[in-house]
Amino acid sequence: MGEDVNTVSPTLGFIIKTIDYEGYKLNIWDVGGQKTLRSYWRNYFEKTDALIWVVDTTDRLRIDDCREELHGLLEEERLAGACLLIFANKTDVDGCMTEEEIVTLLRLNDIRTHQWHVLPCSAMTGKNLKEGLSWVVEDAKKRLFLY
Ligand SMILES: Nc1nc2c(ncn2[C@@H]2O[C@H](COP(=O)(O)OP(=O)(O)OP(=O)(O)O)[C@@H](O)[C@H]2O)c(=O)[nH]1
Ligand SMILES: [Mg+2]
């Protein structure tokens, strides 16, 4: 958020960012998605309240890989208490996959273990980015008082 998407490069390793959102401090660990980096994801599972899964809706070739990785992650015990936000990104691009396609192709309706929510968004235009964070915060708040 607030960054120029035209100058970003692939995340090597991870980047920590803190965003203040309506009085809540969100510590965000942005981990690189390249295949060679995925084995490092497990280093960041501890104390995770929310998993934000950013899907490239213009990339039909890798959507199966995307589904397998996501469902694999959801089996991880240390992520059991986390909610799941799926950002269907790049919806500013013509011909991108629709929300319905993403739900079907990622088999989101099969998810029984986590609260999930899907939002079409665009890092380019900023569409729905705040709405996504708001859902994450509201969901985390609900669980805060359960412990
Ligand atoms: N049109 C459009 N392009 C986008 C959008 N979001 C990201 N991009 C472009 O997509 C490319 C990849 O973006 P990254 O932010 O590096 O993607 P990433 O998922 O962080 O990739 P890794 O760091 O390798 O995991 C860049 O060229 C971005 O400018 C979007 O919403 N719309
Ligand atoms: Mg990145």
TrEMBL record:
Alphabetic keyword roster: GTP-binding, Magnesium, Metal-binding, Nucleotide-binding
Positions with a binding annotation for GTP: 33, 89-92
Domain of life: Eukaryota
Keyword Nucleotide-binding part of the UniProt annotation: yes
Residues the entry annotates as binding Mg(2+): 11
SUPFAM superfamilies: P-loop containing nucleoside triphosphate hydrolases
GO-annotated molecular function: GTP binding; GTPase activity; metal ion binding
SMART domains tied to this protein: ARF
InterPro entries (UniProt xref): ARL2/3, P-loop_NTPase, Small_GTPase_ARF/SAR
Coiled-coil region(s): none
Keyword match Acetylation: no
Family: Belongs to the small GTPase superfamily. Arf family.
Protein name as it appears in the record: Uncharacterized protein
